């Protein structure tokens, strides 16, 4: 089999050739141009790899974990302390996936804390995530790989370019600069409404609000969920997934990451052609 790309109308096709064009809309004209049956023409999309222009750190992380194919990709940077309530973020990530049937991955760009032993807290976070439906491979800590002391800031910004959902379950914030950074890279925001600074900032940014425990000067709240915390997370997980899917900008961003990188085009379009030889 020979695969031909249209370059010139003067080209004389050889036997057993397959003609390719980047969109299905152009296939009838392609067949007419070369006088071949439409059945000899196939779509071969142009590619765009969002990882190609990211930092070396993100490219290296992509060798350890799949950054391209998850339907929902969450990036949560922060110090590995219980104050960030990472386990709540992992539980919500699992609930979003379970409620929607979509694949979810959460990447914690973590750095050390003296508050709790890292191995102990990571085990708790993984237990919460898997209890709500995540696989262990879907819960990633960059400190488990080449960045035990923290993932570079530029790498975090590049990860935000790939992700589509940002969750901030922290129980204390004075402002929340990371919220602005996630929003500026095109992520849906889910913030802890019980934290006044996050409520103020999130209101301006049209964030989706949920409630988790909160504590700082002037407030100390503990949330009680009825009929249960699981029911609360599942209800909001379904609503978050629906909002992600229905938002045209987030949908387009996700489709580009998932469907137009070279490996996706190989699996979807080129490999079937070669296997048919």
What labels describe this entry?
transferase; transferase activity; alpha/beta; 2 domains; 10 helices; 277 residues; Rossmann fold; Glycosyltransferase involved in cell wall biosynthesis
Describe the structure.
The protein has 277 residues and is of the alpha/beta class. It has helices at 27-34, 56-64, 86-100, 118-131, 153-162, 177-184, 196-204, 229-246, 248-259, 262-275; strands spanning 2-4, 17-21, 41-43, 72-79, 104-111, 139-141, 165-168, 188-192, 208-210, 214-216, 219-221. It folds into two domains: 2-47 and 262-275, no CATH class; 53-259, Rossmann fold (3-Layer(aba) Sandwich). 42% of the residues lie in helices and 17% in strands. A three-stranded parallel sheet has the order 1-2-3, covered by helices on one side. It has a three-stranded parallel sheet with strand order 4-5-6, sandwiched between helices. α3 runs parallel beside α4 (118-131) and α3 (86-100) crosses α8 (229-246). The longest helix has 18 residues, at 229-246. It starts with a strand and ends with a helix. Keywords: Transferase. One of its GO terms (molecular function) is transferase activity. This is Glycosyltransferase involved in cell wall biosynthesis.
